[in-house]
Amino acid sequence: MTLGSARSNASNQPKMVDYSGVKLNVSRETDVAAISPLDNDFDDSSPIASQLVNETKRRERLLGRKLPKPGRTRILTVANQKGGVGKTTTTVNMAAALASAGLQVLVIDIDPQGNASTALGVPHHADVDSIYDVLINDVSMAEVIAECPDIDNLYCAPATIHLAGAEIELVSLVAREQRLRRAIDEYVKFRANNGQERLDFIFIDCPPSLGLLTVNAFCAANEVMIPIQCEYYALEGLSQLLKNIEMIQKHLNSDLVVSTILLTMYDGRTNLAAHVAADVREHFPQQVLQALIPRSVRISEAPSYQQTVMTYDPSSTGALSYLEAAAELAERSIP
Ligand SMILES: Nc1ncnc2c1ncn2[C@@H]1O[C@H](COP(=O)(O)OP(=O)(O)OP(=O)(O)O)[C@@H](O)[C@H]1O
Ligand SMILES: [Mg+2]
How much is the pTM? Predict the structure, then answer.
């Protein structure tokens, strides 16, 4: 399969999440993709028209592009201790984009909020066996992994609310920092022994903290991907995150590298977003992806329908941007 061929849930029958009876009344973004640039009286001098032309060109560049399978399973921890910067959104949409291109992708949700599990449509109520059981009760990863209902080749190890206690429970366990790594190693062997295809990417969605759950993710991964929100406080806290990663490299996982930084929630109408983006690119020229994720209503709506934006609205700018980011990630050489 090639990029951009995710199965669209085009019927758009929303799978509303049951927020204790509260139904979300979500707004609808202007569907620019619905307006064809080929219409007769098309005037490409207006901002919306030039945006359309630009998006059409970007889409053409992606269409039918084959993504290479990496030489080994790439394990990326998506981390930033700052909350709400787009970790989960980036995890699930990058994973969905890569899986829709035919790669084998696993998302491990180690955030007690379970947001990645929600967005991927995987059950994660308190009775479900989850990554908590893997970390604390030595349950195998194979027993908790579920297939995502909307996208082929995409799997998720869900998080349940029990994970909220895991930070404390882990403290007294043997090899407390390495438990996720061991579980992943076992699962990789399990797949090989059972004739299942090798995983191409594993994404680990971290909570907004630098506690033992995040340390487990750092120990299990080869790469760190840091989403940075294009807002004023974006770089605050980043030095703390990088210091922690250095400590991990020194003492627990010498293979770990910060390979990827993704700029998220970019608002092209503000000078501030442009300044932050330029600043981050200047500091981390090797790591920052060229692709930029815009602030988009469609991206924020998707999780309330238990979907990624790839299936919720594949023709949106948000989906296009995540496809570009995923292609760039896959085509970069493995660090
Ligand atoms: N590009 C975007 N445009 C608009 N809204 C977005 C975008 N990316 C994320 N959001 C919204 O911003 C909020 C925070 O995003 P997300 O949950 O991905 O961040 P997070 O870093 O995982 O948060 P936490 O630290 O709580 O785990 C969510 O409501 C999400 O839908
Ligand atoms: Mg999150």
Answer: 0.88
